[in-house]
Amino acid sequence: MIDYKLATYGAVQGPRAGIVVGEDVFDLAGLTDKPSYATVLEVLKDWETAQTVLDKAAEETRVGKIKGIPLEKVKLLVPVLYPSTIYCAGANYVDHVQEMAAAQNINPDSDPRSLGLKAWHFIKASRSVVGTVSIVSLPAYSKMVDWEAELTAVIGRRAKDVPSDKALEYLAGYTVGNDLSARDFSARSHVADASPFKYDWVSHKTFDGSCPVGPWIVPARRIPDPQNLHIRLWVNDVLKQDSHTSKMIFSVAEQIAHLSARMTLYPGDLILTGTPAGVGMARREFLKAGDVVRVWIEEIGTLTNTMG
Description:
Blueprint: E1 5-11, E2 14-21, E3 24-27, H1 28-32, H2 40-45, H3 47-63, E4 69-70, E5 86-89, H4 94-103, E6 121-124, E7 129-130, E8 135-136, E9 145-146, E10 149-155, H5 164-167, E11 171-178, E12 181-182, H6 201-205, E13 211-219, E14 230-235, E15 238-244, H7 252-262, E16 270-272, E17 292-297, E18 301-307
Parallel strand pairs: 5-16, 7-13, 8-18
Antiparallel strand pairs: 1-2, 2-3, 3-4, 5-6, 9-12, 10-11, 10-16, 11-13, 14-15, 14-17, 17-18
């Protein structure tokens, strides 16, 4: 079986779903003779059938006469244009929780499992996504935009009340995410801690371009254990985050189970599963125009963005 990735690329007629085999991109609708496969979202909505179709299509790129487009000549866009919902896990790596507690000069919280707690998530706007190599315009109102490398799970089947031991079966695949955060607009310093107006989640987490995602989707079957992946992030080629998904507090499967108990997950939904230690807030370093951020996750690839 030939390995492939699922991507969205820029074509003359607009964004198109593509299958990446080796160093070439092939138009998926043309290759499969399925017009509905012109977008990745439609492929994901048909994921149970699409997997077999994509396997066959990948084989045809090797034995057939269809020519692809060299990857170096293609502009890759956000893999899913546009997910109906983007869920982001908060405080989900042991090392990150410890570094943030140290940065705030407080004692780390107790193990949430010992307190009977579950994972928690916030939501980013669907249109906050940008693809790899895109320029991210830093929000004018913030001087403290931070990086957060995150393994991103892509839902491939409608999921409701899914048990943890079955949860990974509902994934189409994985991609790379960067949960950009305006740290100076998290908590309003002049507002009392008990006030309902203390936090500004929209300004903090969901400004335009706050969710770089890409470069493609790697099918879930290629990654049998998402808790066994190295994850790294560089700013201007300086390594900032260097960790491992085994340090998640709540696993990918547990997050899917928890979210699906609260609401229905749909094909194309994204789950950013938390960030490890090494964020800028811990060292009081923040992004500025011209900075180049690279996020790499083992078995998936590299997401690169320049701040503007």
